[in-house]
Amino acid sequence: MDLNDTPELAEYRVKVRGWLEAHKHEAPEGGASQTEGVAAVAARRAWQGRLTEGGLNGVTWPAEYGGQGLGPLHQVVLNQEIGRAGVPGILDIIGVGMLGPTIIAHGSEEQKHRYLGAMLTGEEVWCQMFSEPAAGSDLAGIQTRARSTDAGWVLNGQKVWTTNAQFSAFGLILARTNPDVPKHKGLSMFIVPMDAEGVSVRPLRQISGDAHFNEVFFDDVVLDEEAIVGPVDGGWGVALTTLLYERVTIGLGGEGFGWRSDRFAAALMRDETAATDHEVRHRFGEIAADFLALRFTGYRMLSALNRGQIPGPEGGLAKVTTIKAAIDAGDLLADTLGPDALSDDDDGFGKLISDLPGLKSAGGTEEILRNMVGERVLGLPPEPRLDKGVPFSQLKALEKEAVK
Amino acid sequence: MNFALSEEQEFLKEAARGTLSRVPTVAAARDALEGEPLPDLWPAAREAGWPGLLLAEERGGAGLSVMEAMLVFEELGRVLASVPLLGHLPATFVLDAAEGLDADLLSALADGERRAAFVPARPPSDIEPRWTVDALLGSARPEAPEIAEDGTVTGTVAWVPDAPGADVLVVVGRGRAVLVETNAAGVSIEPVTRYDATRSLGHVRLDGAAGTLVDVPEVKLASAFYLAWTLLAAESLGATDRALEISLEYARERFTFGRAIGSYQAVKHMLVEILRLGENARSLMYYAGFAGKDAPDEFPLAAAAFRLSAGKALEHASRTQISVHGGIGATFEHDAPLYFRRSQLSRRLLAGTADAADRVAAETFRTAAAAA
User: Is residue A360 part of a domain?
Assistant: First the structure.
């Protein structure tokens, strides 16, 4: 058990720290969540460009696509140093962390050369369009259709929970290309220019009042043959790659949300009565232990990644713990400090408390996650399913029959 | 960075499992509730080299660290084995740091020819300036025994693990420690067994007993207390894993309404919750192993967090094991009650898991204040 850098990593850390020291005055103000507003987004994009020029982006991407060709531990060192320098990281975590690697794995050479460079510099930001109002945890049940016509693929439908859609240049979209086969087998992945005719983006306002997500509507959007990533009807495999990188990105992100027990401790310590109260201390101890466990679960995951092991669904349990610990923390702070704790300003925890009920379901509901872990990790038998082997086009009728 | 077990550590774990597999420890735990004597596992422990695990090689020990000791305890916990190492290892941990002790005694302790028991005292915190010990009854914690300059010691410490049958005691007082022979005048050890018959406990009464001062810094005495926490926690984590395995097996085999019960979400999710809590505890075990060796300043936090989280994991696991098995799980037709009893008592020993939560809070406040 050790936290030490290998000589190679130590050298990398020195290099990164040096660059950040020299350039941090160019970084935009505000934390990582300041992506609201046109000016703020422009500043974050420019900063992503600077990081890329400095060799501090695309750490694990192959060098031939503009990356650094390094390992996951280098990414962790970089994240740590960015946190230490107090500057924001890249804007397009979704593109660089998840969608770029998907294109690298499944895209054509033309696609790689056309899109990856501008994605890395932040010149073109990307969004991920998988979930729909009626298909999230059961992602393969999506209804957005792409029909093959003489003019090309014609896209119709709706996506939801799309982060960054309002300023993205492109999106990676999962759509149904063949409804007459079982649902996983008739999907394809496409690249959509977000300024294409027939694409409209509408913000979704959340409990906090912020709009971190969007709905995106597609109305006869025409895509050419080159828009497809991977084989026709082979989109499910492509989507699984994205979801794998999502787990890795979340795993490496760690304390990126700013939910840290030292911050909660500082708030409690301002109230001396609370900080010496047995019940408050007991509750806080449970929360702090969970956050500590998460940090070291992250280190365990990284050690496994570094040995070339692919993270399994059990990594998702860390997400359950994260959300639970943060909910408990918000609750304890509000119970202890009173209504002021609910305020949205910097001293308050209103935003934290507001964001958590939704985050519980982000990336798949906790219930689905527990099913996956129960079946794939613990080897428990699956629930009986109605949809196995049934063509997608016949599913609706079957579902109606089942609730009669 | 590396947070995985080394090959040597994997081997140590495997060897411990092998050693313990030769004795039907779970059946013995059941018989012990009926008053049958527990099998004596000390010879096997000696053969495996466990008594000397934490003593330096030049003192006849193996010179290993907290991590290895926890791995042995994980295996002990899996099979509810009763081996008096919870008393012995923290005692030898203290003695290993001292100079000028009888070398023959140390090598006899390393070999297991003689056995030590640690008489623990909880180190002070931000809201309790005294060294305190577990009370015979209730939540008011008495001050730790008083140790005079000449090494005589007076005081009462309740619920001391493995005190009955020990040859020597390492008694922690108010910031100092003393080595006492259990047959010395003024020493009395009242054996007690409560609820979990595999756990040997004793109320230790010291009335002007003569001892030898053990010259170690206060922080070492605090570490010994936290070491005892990590061992108890590792034992709970081992029991958690085993309770999960047993429950999984049943959930795959037992059918209701034409389906294996493990296919129902309600059952599946309870079992996944054991895994979640157990894996959190395992991450904290690695943290404790790391801190114990390389970040001593963080050891109190790591040990407290591990104790808390492993206690919680076994609490959930032992209750879930009973629920998954239905009514039979709550009877001695099954082993589940043994794991339940283990959980109930373990959580109340050595100041209890609630105190571990308090310590996590205290240490987090301390580091947050230092950072501000």
Answer: yes
| Residue B311, domain extent | 220-371
Q: Is A246 a catalytic residue?
A: yes
List phi, psi (to 5°) of A127.
-130, 160
pLDDT tens digits along A44-96: 999 999 999 999 999 999 999 999 999 888 998 998 899 889 899 999 999 99
Task: Answer whether residue B257 is part of any domain.
Answer: yes
Helices marked H in A107-197: 109-121
Percent of chain B predicted with pLDDT > 70: 100
| Secondary structure E strands in A230-385 | none
| Contacting residues of B for A265, CB less than 8 Å apart | 361, 364-365, 368
Euclidean distance between CA atoms A342 and A358, whole angstroms: 17
CATH of the domain at B263: 1.20.140.10
Q: Following DSSP, what letter does each residue of A179-224 receive, concatenated? A: TTSBGGGGEEEEEEETTSTTEEEEEE--TTS---EEEEEEEEEEE-
* Domain boundaries, position A170: 126-238
Of B166, B234, B250, B273, residue with least CA distance to B5? B234
Residue B245 is assigned to a structural domain of this protein:
yes
CB contact under 8 A, A377 and B275: yes
Residue A35, pLDDT above cutoff 80: no
Range name among A4-13, A112-121, B157-166, B349-358 with the lowest pLDDT average = A4-13
Smallest Cα distance from A205 to chain B, Å: 32
Q: Are A47 and A88 in contact, with CB atoms under 8 Å apart?
A: yes
Q: Of the candidates B287, B358, B360, which has its C-beta nearest A296's C-beta?
A: B287
Please give the average per-residue pLDDT across B269-289, as a whole number: 98
Q: Which of B276, B361, B368 sits opposite A281 (nearest CB)?
A: B361
Confidence tier at A33 by pLDDT (50, 70, 90): low
A380/B271 CB distance under 8 A? yes
- Tell me the average pLDDT of chain A: 92
* Of A225, A246, A272, A399, catalytic: A246
Is residue B57 within 8 A of residue B35, CB to CB? The reply is: no
ipTM of the complex as predicted? 0.96
- Report the domain count for chain A: 3
Q: How many CB pairs under 8 A join A and B?
A: 177
Nearest neighbour of B309 by CB, restricted to A1, A289, A320 = A289
Residues of A in contact with B282 (CB under 8 A): 300
Here the CATH number for the domain that contains residue A360 is 1.20.140.10
Residue A167, in any domain of the structure? yes
pTM of the model: 0.95
* CA-based nearest distance B309→chain A, Å: 7
Number of domains comprising chain B: 1
Write the pLDDT tens digit of every residue in A316-347.
898 899 999 999 999 999 999 999 999 988 77
CATH code for position A180: 2.40.110.10
User: Is residue B21 predicted with pLDDT exceeding 90?
Assistant: yes
- Note whether A227 and A279 are same-domain residues: no
Helix axes B299-324, B353-371, angle to 10 degrees: 140
Is residue B106, in this structure, part of any structural domain at all?
Answer: no
B contacts of A296 (beta carbons < 8 Å): 3, 283-284, 286-287
